[in-house]
Specification:
The protein is mainly α and about 210 residues long. Helix content is about 70%, strand content about 0%. The chain has one domain. It contains seven helices and no strands.
Length: about 210
Amino acid sequence: MMSKRYIPILALLLSVPFWFLAALNYPGGTSWDTTTHGFSLASNYVSSLFQPLALNGMVNTARFFAFIAMLLYAAGVSVMFWVISSSYPKSAASKTVQIFGVGSMVYTFIAVTTPMHNLLVVIAAIFLAVACAGMLVLLHQDSKHKLLLFGIFNLLLLAVLSATTKGNLLVGIGPACEWILFLCGALWVMLVYFGATAPHASARRTRENPRAT
């Protein structure tokens, strides 16, 4: 029988084929050229997959698969944020990871499935940045230096993505940066989750912080 520990990871992995199906079913069009055919990681934002009409004006047949993909992705990452925060002694940092980590995924899911996209994306980005900062504090306290560096990389990716606004010289790399952040961010959270839920890690924290249990 599969351990409960692997359920959020399974949800995250199950989202992958649905992302592929969504991309394969996207009719075409980008923010720069509405005449293109199909989906491009370098030119299409995640939100392109969720619009009723594709950017080329055709009915967007990718929506169904994209909805399932995002639901699985957000659910898996949310649970991992929650469990990570619960695996560390109670502190401002662990509470930050719990509240803002889960919140970032909730706002991300709502952002791509409702008309209030622009506002909710900004809120989701702020929540994610705060959650990342909290997790960096936990990793520093736990001397997880490699994961700490990987987290800083993700935070920098988020900063670059936030800078790719209209009229900015970086706007052209926005879609690719967003997809890289989706991949690397989930991978980072998953690696931290694996380390935080490992039996030896829990035992060590119990010895070091007996009141945490």
